[in-house]
Amino acid sequence: MMNINIEDGIERSIKHLADPRVQSSIKIQSTIRQSLRDSLVRRGFMEISPTLLSPLTDPLNHPVYDPCITVYGEKMWLTKSMIFHKQIAVQQLKKIFIMSPNIRLETEEKASSGRHLFEFTQIDIEELDASREVMMDLAEVMINEALAGVRSANGAELAFLSRACRPFPRPFNKIAFQDAVANYGEKFEERISKEATAPVWIVDIPLKAREFYDREYPDRPGILRDMDLLWPEGYQEALSGGEREFQYEKIMERIRKKEQAEEQFRWFTELAKRGIRMSSGFGIGIERFTRYVCGLEHVGLTNPFPKIPGTVSL
Ligand code: ASP
Ligand code: MG
Hints:
This protein is α+β, with helices and mostly antiparallel strands.
């Protein structure tokens, strides 16, 4: 039994697609996607296919409903992120990226955050033997190239949305997680982003605020060699990433520290036991990038068929 009104749903969908803000942002997003791809290909990265269903996916660091299905008698999950697939693929393929559709069944109250869709695309990037700093540099360059690309290709849309869209001076500012909390309190992301007029890096995010897979500083227990980037003007998270833990014993220790079921990660941990090399990477949310560039109140306005938490739609 369906308890949604399909007629109303279709009506909402038609209205949404006819909204000039939606049409402008989708046009801009097309430029952003193309530009991010071009930036990576020019630097020797290869695009690989997305994985949609797997016995292994990102545990995330916040609660979501669990999209697990039984396939041929075994459990498989819809992809929350390809973090482990990236780490595994890069061992052979060296420099990769994926336009990766992710399903994260966020809880209903996230509907009004302006930042959450339960289906979205991230451009997920990974490089073998690279440091966090190399990846941060790459992220800044890619973002600036995409902003310049939109500026030259989408003048009419930017004018309609009253947005400027200029590349930012590099390097972007950095603040350590600990200092961010001390100076701005627990809601530092919101505060720093609101105050900022250019993107700001948050670095050294501790294990308690992260998934188990990012690498710990060898001499700073509990502090990770990772990063988030915040958009200015209150748009908050642009990307997250880091160096990855690659030593089997350390990975197992972290899974235990995060009180996670070891069983869920065996496809990764058994492989790590055979020996893998360090890699680094990050993922940029395409819809959030578009939302920021377009200055929109909700990220749903950047997607033709937005999946708003708590709502069933086309
Ligand atoms: N793809 C990862 C995520 O969704 C980001 C990363 O590369 O660390 O959390
Ligand atoms: Mg993550």
